[in-house]
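Revision sheet: structure tokens.
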Amino acid sequence: MTARRVILELGAGNDLHGGDYTKAAIRAVQDAIHHSSLTMIRTLDVKPGGMLVDVTIGVQQPDKVDREAVAATLPHGTVTVDVVKGGLDVPDEALGDVAVIASAAIAVRLELD
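Predicted:
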């Protein structure tokens, strides 16, 4: 069998103060998953643990994202997290702060005949 992508959800999240890339990434993931209902998964009687969940996060400083913390926020499936350069940093020079904007793409794959 081959794992085929059956769902793709997109989201955006931010941390407005403090420059926390993990917080922004988690918020982007939550934004993405709260846009969908996995009705198809239930209709096909797929066990939630059988889903392969591929998460891609885009932020300006990928090495500052805790991949395990992001993966832990997803309720089902075997989760992999890849973090790439993307997103946006919005500096506030007057306060010495930065707002972090993260993008998330979540793909769900299923083993199908």
